[in-house]
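Sequence and fold
=================
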Amino acid sequence: MGTVRYDAPVASTTIALGITLIVLGLAGYFLTGAASLTALIPAAFGLLLALAGLLARDDRKRMHAIHAAVVIALLGFLGSVRGLLRIGDVFHATSARPAAIVAQSIMAVLTLAYIVIAVRSFIQARKARRGAA
Protein backbone atom coordinates (compact mmCIF):
# COMPACT_ATOMS: atom_id res chain seq x y z
CA MET A 1 0.00 0.00 0.00
CA GLY A 2 1.41 3.40 -1.00
CA THR A 3 1.77 6.25 1.43
CA VAL A 4 -0.77 9.01 0.93
CA ARG A 5 0.65 12.36 1.91
CA TYR A 6 -1.16 15.38 3.15
CA ASP A 7 -1.28 18.28 0.79
CA ALA A 8 2.17 19.91 0.95
CA PRO A 9 0.81 23.38 0.06
CA VAL A 10 -1.10 23.33 3.36
CA ALA A 11 2.28 23.64 5.09
CA SER A 12 2.96 26.82 3.11
CA THR A 13 -0.55 28.07 3.84
CA THR A 14 0.09 27.46 7.53
CA ILE A 15 3.33 29.45 7.41
CA ALA A 16 1.62 32.27 5.49
CA LEU A 17 -1.18 32.43 8.06
CA GLY A 18 1.38 32.48 10.84
CA ILE A 19 3.28 35.37 9.29
CA THR A 20 0.03 37.24 8.64
CA LEU A 21 -1.03 36.89 12.26
CA ILE A 22 2.41 37.99 13.46
CA VAL A 23 2.12 41.12 11.31
CA LEU A 24 -1.45 41.69 12.55
CA GLY A 25 -0.36 41.42 16.17
CA LEU A 26 2.67 43.67 15.77
CA ALA A 27 0.70 46.23 13.77
CA GLY A 28 -2.08 46.24 16.34
CA TYR A 29 0.40 46.69 19.14
CA PHE A 30 2.47 49.47 17.62
CA LEU A 31 -0.35 51.32 15.83
CA THR A 32 -2.24 51.64 19.11
CA GLY A 33 0.79 53.15 20.82
CA ALA A 34 1.88 49.90 22.50
CA ALA A 35 -0.91 50.48 24.98
CA SER A 36 -1.77 46.86 25.65
CA LEU A 37 0.18 43.62 25.44
CA THR A 38 -3.04 41.81 24.53
CA ALA A 39 -2.66 43.31 21.05
CA LEU A 40 0.20 40.82 20.59
CA ILE A 41 -2.07 37.77 21.02
CA PRO A 42 -2.45 37.29 17.25
CA ALA A 43 1.36 37.36 16.95
CA ALA A 44 1.66 34.58 19.54
CA PHE A 45 -0.80 32.42 17.62
CA GLY A 46 1.02 33.33 14.42
CA LEU A 47 4.35 32.22 15.83
CA LEU A 48 2.92 28.84 16.85
CA LEU A 49 1.28 28.39 13.45
CA ALA A 50 4.43 29.35 11.56
CA LEU A 51 6.42 26.83 13.59
CA ALA A 52 3.82 24.13 12.90
CA GLY A 53 4.00 25.01 9.21
CA LEU A 54 7.77 24.68 9.21
CA LEU A 55 7.48 21.27 10.89
CA ALA A 56 4.87 20.26 8.30
CA ARG A 57 7.41 20.65 5.52
CA ASP A 58 8.87 17.35 6.69
CA ASP A 59 6.74 14.56 5.17
CA ARG A 60 7.12 12.44 8.31
CA LYS A 61 5.85 15.22 10.59
CA ARG A 62 3.28 16.80 8.29
CA MET A 63 0.15 15.03 9.51
CA HIS A 64 0.79 15.76 13.18
CA ALA A 65 1.99 19.30 12.55
CA ILE A 66 -1.06 20.23 10.49
CA HIS A 67 -3.39 18.64 13.03
CA ALA A 68 -1.68 20.69 15.75
CA ALA A 69 -1.98 23.80 13.58
CA VAL A 70 -5.72 23.22 13.19
CA VAL A 71 -6.10 22.96 16.96
CA ILE A 72 -4.14 26.21 17.38
CA ALA A 73 -6.25 27.88 14.69
CA LEU A 74 -9.45 26.62 16.33
CA LEU A 75 -8.38 28.07 19.68
CA GLY A 76 -7.51 31.33 17.91
CA PHE A 77 -10.91 31.39 16.22
CA LEU A 78 -12.77 30.68 19.44
CA GLY A 79 -10.84 33.42 21.22
CA SER A 80 -11.37 36.01 18.51
CA VAL A 81 -14.86 35.32 17.20
CA ARG A 82 -16.47 37.69 19.71
CA GLY A 83 -14.69 40.54 17.92
CA LEU A 84 -16.36 39.49 14.71
CA LEU A 85 -19.71 39.50 16.50
CA ARG A 86 -19.06 43.09 17.66
CA ILE A 87 -17.80 44.50 14.35
CA GLY A 88 -21.04 46.47 14.00
CA ASP A 89 -20.02 48.56 17.01
CA VAL A 90 -16.99 49.77 15.06
CA PHE A 91 -19.14 50.92 12.16
CA HIS A 92 -21.61 52.62 14.50
CA ALA A 93 -18.72 54.28 16.38
CA THR A 94 -19.92 52.86 19.70
CA SER A 95 -16.89 50.72 20.46
CA ALA A 96 -14.45 51.68 23.19
CA ARG A 97 -11.64 49.71 21.53
CA PRO A 98 -12.25 49.60 17.76
CA ALA A 99 -8.71 48.48 16.92
CA ALA A 100 -9.11 45.40 19.12
CA ILE A 101 -12.42 44.50 17.50
CA VAL A 102 -10.97 44.90 14.01
CA ALA A 103 -7.91 42.78 14.87
CA GLN A 104 -10.09 40.10 16.48
CA SER A 105 -12.38 40.07 13.45
CA ILE A 106 -9.49 39.69 11.04
CA MET A 107 -8.04 36.89 13.13
CA ALA A 108 -11.41 35.12 13.33
CA VAL A 109 -11.91 35.23 9.55
CA LEU A 110 -8.35 34.11 8.79
CA THR A 111 -8.32 31.25 11.27
CA LEU A 112 -11.76 30.02 10.17
CA ALA A 113 -10.67 30.07 6.52
CA TYR A 114 -7.53 28.13 7.45
CA ILE A 115 -9.54 25.52 9.36
CA VAL A 116 -11.74 24.99 6.31
CA ILE A 117 -8.71 24.63 4.01
CA ALA A 118 -7.00 22.18 6.36
CA VAL A 119 -10.09 20.06 6.96
CA ARG A 120 -10.65 19.84 3.20
CA SER A 121 -7.07 18.60 2.91
CA PHE A 122 -7.75 15.97 5.58
CA ILE A 123 -10.84 14.79 3.69
CA GLN A 124 -8.91 14.59 0.40
CA ALA A 125 -6.13 12.58 2.07
CA ARG A 126 -8.66 10.18 3.58
CA LYS A 127 -10.36 9.69 0.20
CA ALA A 128 -7.00 9.11 -1.44
CA ARG A 129 -6.09 6.53 1.23
CA ARG A 130 -9.38 4.71 0.65
CA GLY A 131 -8.81 4.78 -3.11
CA ALA A 132 -5.27 3.42 -2.72
CA ALA A 133 -6.43 0.52 -0.54
